[in-house]
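help with this.
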Amino acid sequence: MRNLADKPEAQAAPRSNRRILVFGVLFCIVAAIVAAWLLGLLDKVGLLS
């Protein structure tokens, strides 16, 4: 992991790194919401006892 941080490209574009981080967090939130919705849907259908 230290090798990735030492690359000059990684330090040259902190803005894009922050954008990637924001998209990653948003993706995790959306994935959690979708997972919770799917669990609720399966519970309604009765597949989960």
